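The freezer alarm interrupted the setup, so I double-checked each line after restarting. Inputs confirmed:
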Amino acid sequence: MNSRNPILQITNVGKEYYGNRVLKDISFDLYPGEILGLVGENGAGKSTLMNILFGMPVIADTGGYEGTISINGTAVRFRTPFDALDAGIGMVHQEFSLIPGFTTTENILLNSESQKKNILDEVFGPRMDILDRPDMRRRALEAIGKLGIQLDPEMCVSEMPVGHKQFTEIAREIIRKNMKILVLDEPTAVLTESEASILLDGLKKLAGEGIGIIFISHRLQEVLDLTDKVVVLRDGLIAHEAPTAGLTIREIARRMVGRGFDSKEAEVRPSRATDETVLEVENLWVDMPGETVRDVSFSVRRGEIFGIGGLAGQGKLGIPNGIMGLMSAGGSVHFRDRNGVRRTAILNDPRSALEQGMAFVSEDRRGVGLLLDEPVDWNIVFTSMQIQGRFLKPIFGGLIKWRDEGAIRKTAWEYIHSLEIKCTSERQPVIELSGGNQQKICLAKAFTMKPEIMFVSEPTRGIDIGAKRLVLDTLRQYNQDYGTTIIMVSSELEELRSICDRIAVIDEGCVAGILPPGTEASEFGLLMTGVTARKTTQQQGAEQ
Amino acid sequence: MNRLKQFITDFGWPRIIIALFLISLFFAAPFVDVRIDTSFSDLFNRFGMNAVLVLAMVPMVQSGCGLNFGLPLGVIAGLLGSTLSIEMGMTGTAGFAMAIAIACLFAMVLGYGYGKLLNRVKGDEMMIATYVGFSSVAFMSILWLLLPFKSPTMVWGFAGKGLRTTISLEGFWSHILNDFLAFRIGENFVFPTGMILFFAVICLLVWSFMHTKTGTALTAVGSNPEFARASGIDVNRMRTISVVFSTMLGAVGILVYQQSFGFIQLYNAPFYMAFPAVAAILLGGASVNKASMVNVIVGTLLFQGILTMTPSVINSVLKTDMSEVIRIIVSNGMILYALTRRTKVSK
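Predicted 3D structure, all chains:
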């Protein structure tokens, strides 16, 4: 295969977002008829790479990229997706971009319809042409046939099952005559197993006709079955590139999630975990859009740092949001208060969750975590003021609860010093601070509550590496100093492994397994990608 | 120099231009035979009349309910207060106090319903509020005719029932605030001390409320409702409180307006009450979810200042009487301008 010239060459491509490096030195080739599997954790840089390849405006708007991309040996630099389309790149996105009220045929041939001339277009030009419906139908069926699938050309998209929508989307890409490279971003995520296997067969047929395919998926078995070559991205670098033959799922999973143990993680520290169970979650379900939790049970010991990991969209974020009452939830949650009395937590009521001594640092920092237009001190004390009645001075025998500006300023400065929050004063609006400092304010807000149990969701998302370290150290320090139970949700496994006592991996809304942080990375990778999910849950059940 | 630049950015060019225009009008006035002392007297008078109505915007803006386009609802509560007080035969300070008490009672009830309604239409508050105002005015137009008022000072003389469109407050509480501690400088300048003091007290009340636990929660709801919810705040309750408070301020506001104007205006009069108040607070630098007392004072002074000065000066320049036309052009022009920049916050 390598005797031919590569259809797509990516050479030393790199990308920075606002000084935050997300891709570095990416180089690989794609040959005609080859299927390349691109895998990596969330945030490994897959989407950015595809955005660069497809000429998405977001790349140019944020300062372009480094390195070169060549198609058929000529270097290209796309300004818009239209350039990429003209150059013969087709892309199927995770979200459907179809017109619901149009039929299959109309969607497939959108903007490339067959046309018949009539008298009006002599006067007004080709805009007045009439659609040649029989020919459109023929061409649509041809494209559908190429994929080897069954699709009704007259069916309305809004009435289709998701699988058919996905097929329609792919058919729309392959209808174009000059299409040479097809990029599929998680095409099988919404498909059933049988649909997925039909799709994979179709893709093989397409590759047989000389089209180069880049296949992005979290389902490693499919990657193994389908592709000729696998490229593993991790932290913006190519972690591994090898022909598929000879690779195992375990090998790919290990390459995806980490480099095994290094000295940093091996650092010994005493765990504050006690034998007392502080939180018991049984059969929790949470209806959080995009992060549905189906059936989760686990228990956490007092003083423990409990990690929750898993890929995006599998439901790990739903767990804290559900327990804290921000998203509608069901199931049962019990906790033990300071005096060891077992209580039932009331779900769907943020106030009672807070009153019972739980605090939450939200993953949606700007949306939920902060009052962006308000000053630093307000953000830090607000929740405590409203829930615990601190920072208030009673006037007229408690009839009026007046804000105690002095106490507020004092507490704000305590945290500004201890967490090294960089701000001009405690009255500076939070919107003017950097992501890392905003995150510290979110932590300070939770610390001010003096919680028994603290939920921390994606504490390092969108902040630079130095600040990440600081945030993690702060959490660990707080746990060490006060013995506060911390439940940390993160997409970054390395982060969880560096501070947690135990880590639960969530897959498809259920606990796939709970592992100690010292477990080999490949084990985590297997749990995340759902390979051992069923087996382990059964084991868990048996243990309990 | 830097401080000047900072001041200009904070204050905003448009407002500086408007302020300069207003000042230039004062300078131009003597040359076209417009008396400057009369103008200042007018300005303070109009400021006092309208300031509380503008203040009625603040609680709702702070809680994120948007600008109080439903101000006519508060005005109606105020009208009910004053008409009922007259009907009871109360006069003077007692009559005015009774009017405020009754008005606040009605404002509470109406505001509660209005607040509940706005909680159901989050995101579209201002459009809905406008029509709440309009439709309540229309509804009350029927009621003013049908309600069994008896007081001969208020009902139509020939029919003996149904309220008149304009009711004089002479002999009741006309100028009761204006004349309190009022002082005169020269022949034409009268400072309405009582009315300005009354406004200051109400201002202090609102300011204090914003410094309580509830006021803080209310501001947080306006700033980020999701944050407030995650902090255990009942967002809908806070919004309702702010709407009730705004409506009550609107009711008190119209009573202050009436005592200075000397008449109660019924039927269609409350129709366009909201727009000048909205324009004034926007001109003062408030945004859709942030407003302060400074915004209210600066905005009312600028808006009423331009409204007082432009027609009289231009009228004198052109030597024809078209003050009403100019007033409409200027006031609606400023409303238009203010609404276009409603998302920008200034200090």
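Quick read of the result. Chain B touches chain A at residues 208, 211-214, 216-217, 219-220, 223-224, 226-227, 229-234, 289-290, 345 (CB under 8 Å).
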